[in-house]
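>> received
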Amino acid sequence: QVQLVESGGGLVQPGGSLRLSCLVSGRVHAINSMAWYRQGAGTQRELVAEINNSGTTTVSASAKGRFTISRDTAKNTVYLQMNSLKPEDTAVYYCYGDLMGSGDRWLRHYWGQGIQVTVSS
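>> returned
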């Protein structure tokens, strides 16, 4: 079984920083891409940042210049470094993976449970 385990969320003041981690646990055969999404109160889930199997990253316009997505392949972990946080960044952040586990016949979509990030003074 494969699970995405998120950590690193919490409360931070505006202008502060947080680093979210997503551990891809279980027996994984392949990871095509990983991403972070977020969903604020009363909003739809939106893509924040993505990293593909070549290490190429994309960041949404609202997060560009402030957020960085990265990975540690040896640890099967993807990170989201969030700097210069704003109140509008407050949301539940979800780790997403397009990957293949030992019980999968091909790539499928995996989601973490979500982790709260609150930016408030």
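>> The longest strand covers residues 28-39.
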